[in-house]
């Protein structure tokens, strides 16, 4: 059997998400791996604008075959008005998958 790695973004479902400063955004992914070695998942976000309030930036999933659901919560700390790229990557040996989306942090009421 061949080894494989798949990463799916569950939430948010939009490619651009708008939130207010001091609000949180939940992120959820599914990772499906078949016969992999040393799989890990990384959350990449702009720490100038966000605090990670739930989850870890780097998660080791180990080796073998598995299906895992992972989640994080980011809290917006500053207004950005520009799109801030947020990305989740999964790696295992020479296998690589990435998903991402943009977040715009706005002033309350805009």
Distance between the termini: 53 Å
Q: What is the molecular shape?
A: elongated
Structural class category:
mainly beta
List low-confidence stretches: none
Q: What's the level 1 CATH class?
A: Mainly Beta
Order of helices and strands: EEEEEEE
Q: What CATH architecture would you give?
A: Sandwich
Helix segment tally: 0
Per DSSP, what share of the residues sits in E-state strands of 2 or more residues?
over 45%
Largest sheet, in brief, is: 7 strands, mixed
What number of structural domains do the residues give? 1
Gyration radius, rounded: 15 Å
Write down the overall mean pLDDT: 95
What's the CATH topology name?
Immunoglobulin-like
Outline:
With 110 residues, this protein is mostly beta strands.
Mind explaining what this structure looks like?
The protein is mainly beta and 110 residues long. The chain has one domain: Immunoglobulins (Immunoglobulin-like), CATH 2.60.40. It is 0% helix and 72% strand. It is built from no helices and 7 strands. It has strands at residues 4-11, 16-20, 24-44, 50-54, 58-76, 84-92, 95-106. Strands 1, 2, 3, 4, 5, 6 and 7 form a 7-stranded mixed β-sheet that branches.
What structural keywords apply?
mainly beta; Immunoglobulin-like; seven-stranded mixed β-sheet; elongated
What does the secondary structure layout of this molecule look like, with pairings?
Layout: E1 4-11, E2 16-20, E3 24-44, E4 50-54, E5 58-76, E6 84-92, E7 95-106
Parallel strand pairs: 2-7
Antiparallel strand pairs: 1-3, 3-5, 3-6, 4-5, 6-7
């Amino acid at each position: 059997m061949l080894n494989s790695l798949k990463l799916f973004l569950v939430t948010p479902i939009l490619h651009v998400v708008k939130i207010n400063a001091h609000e949180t955004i939940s992120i959820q992914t599914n990772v499906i791996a078949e016969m992999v070695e040393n799989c890990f998942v990384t959350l990449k976000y702009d720490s100038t604008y966000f605090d990670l309030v739930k989850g870890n930036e780097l998660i080791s999933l180990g080796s073998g075959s598995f299906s895992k659901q992972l989640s994080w919560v980011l809290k917006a700390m500053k207004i950005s008005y520009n799109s801030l790229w947020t990305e989740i990557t999964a790696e295992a040996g020479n296998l690589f998958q990435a998903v991402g989306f943009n977040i715009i942090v706005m002033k309350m009421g805009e």
